[in-house]
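Title: Comparing notes on inverse folding

I've been comparing how different people in this forum approach sequence design from structure. To keep things fair, I'm posting one structure and asking everyone to reply with a full sequence. Here's the target:
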């Protein structure tokens, strides 16, 4: 009986850990066409596509380039990073440009500290609150980790 229970526990643990494997999604502005994001050869063209595909615990890795978009984390606890967040040249060359249309990066406010934004230049965001990075709403504030970024040339005009 003990052996049967032990084997059942081991099998359940194996199924759980197999389901807990995080995915990596790839984004490259220079990709010839948007792909399914599962490799550099099949990379998405936009960061938001990578975020949309990701689930909690996944990583979205972004190649150097300029991404003219206003990205939303949508409450997902993911790691969004450049190819090398510790290399200043990669950080300078991996740009999220908000085009003056809204916050360049927005969090819903429900993200935990395991949610990471790392290795980007974030510029040209413009919003009432948080032109470069908006950390949630008036009642919810993100706990996301924001590190190794250059945040410059953004504007917040309290409405």
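Reply #1:
Here's my take.
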């Amino acid at each position: 009986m003990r052996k049967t229970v032990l084997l059942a526990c081991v099998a359940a643990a194996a199924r759980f850990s197999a389901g807990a494997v995080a995915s990596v999604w790839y984004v490259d502005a220079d990709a010839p066409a948007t792909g399914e994001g599962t490799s550099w050869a099949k990379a998405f063209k936009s960061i938001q596509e990578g975020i949309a595909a990701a689930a909690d615990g996944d990583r979205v890795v972004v190649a150097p380039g300029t991404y003219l978009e206003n990205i939303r984390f949508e409450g997902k606890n993911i790691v969004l990073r450049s190819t090398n967040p510790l290399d200043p040249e990669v950080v300078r060359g991996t740009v999220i440009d908000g085009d003056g249309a809204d916050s360049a990066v927005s969090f819903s406010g429900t993200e935990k500290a395991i949610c990471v934004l790392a290795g980007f230049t974030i510029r040209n965001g413009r919003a009432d609150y948080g032109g470069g990075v908006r950390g949630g709403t008036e009642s919810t504030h993100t706990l996301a980790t924001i590190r190794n970024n250059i945040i410059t040339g953004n504007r917040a005009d309290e409405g």
